[in-house]
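I would love for you to help me understand the pair of lines that follows before we discuss the fold together.
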Amino acid sequence: MFHLFDTYAAGLSLLTSALFEAIAVSWFYGLNKFTQDVDAMLGIKPGLYWRICWKFVSPSFLIGVILFGLIFPVPLKYEDYDYPIWAESIGWCLALASILMIPLNAIWQLLKAPGTFKEKLAICITPVDEHEYLRETKLVSRFKARHWLYV
C-alpha cells in the first residue's frame, strides 16, 4: 500500500502542482512583480538567467516530464510482484484526486466571482491586495502585453 501511495501520490502529482505553481507565479502573478518581491526580500534583483528559467525553462521541462510520464507509463511493480490493473487504477485515482483540485478550484473561483467573465478573470488572476484598485479603475495590468512579455 505504501508503494502505491508513494508512486502515484508523490510523483506525477507533485510535478503537476509544481507546473501550476510555476505558471501561476511567473505568468499570472507576473515575473516583474515577482522580481520586485525577491528584490525586496533579498536586496538583489534576480538576473536574466533566473527570470528566463522561471518563465520558460522550468515550465517547459515540467511539461516534458509530465507528458513523458503520461505517454510512457511504467507498470507498477514491487520487486517480483506485479500489481493488478485495479490497483493501478486506484493509484491513478489517488493522483488525479490531488491534481484535479487545482483546475477545479480555479473554475470554482471563476464561477463565484462577481461580474462579467472578463471581470471574473481579472479578479481571479490579480493578487488580493490589488482588487480594490482594480474595482475602482477597471485597469487590469494582466490584460496588457507588457505583463506577459516581461523577462
About this structure: The mean pLDDT is 91.
